[in-house]
Design a protein that fits this description.
CATH class: Alpha Beta
Number of domains: 1
Shape: globular
Order of helices and strands: EHEEHHE
GO molecular function: oxidoreductase activity
Organism: Kribbella speibonae
Protein name: EthD family reductase
Number of helices: 3
Strand content: 15-25%
InterPro entries: Dimeric_a/b-barrel, EthD_dom
Distance between the termini: 19 Å
CATH architecture: 2-Layer Sandwich
Helix content: 25-40%
Length: 103
């Protein structure tokens, strides 16, 4: 399994972010080829102090090749280009293979 994690710092207009994200961006996510599951939250808390992030998104793919293919697809390119329409606080995107624990 391969995951992508998207961390969103506080945007200039949180209400616009929420509305746009739910009503316009997530429908694009639903069309992303190869995505096995995805989830998001606007309730991002830190163990101590304030969270540096306003929202979080994660998606799962079968493997890195599936993620790379999805990112390169027309839908993936559209998804990536759409981020500028709501993420005025910036964005941090990381992806990684998932290691299973045997303990």
């Amino acid at each position: 399994m391969h995951k992508v994690l998207v961390l969103y710092p506080e945007p200039i207009d949180p209400d616009h972010f929420r509305d746009y994200y739910v009503n316009k961006h997530l429908p694009l996510v639903a069309q992303w080829p190869g995505v096995l599951a995805w989830r998001y939250s606007f309730e991002v808390a830190a163990k101590q102090g304030d969270s540096p992030y306003f929202a979080i998104f994660e998606a799962e793919f079968a493997d890195e090749a599936a993620y790379e293919a999805a990112s390169a697809s027309p839908q993936g390119q559209q998804l990536s280009a759409d981020v500028a329409n709501y993420a005025t606080g910036g964005v941090v995107v990381v992806h990684y293979p998932v290691q299973n624990s045997t303990s």
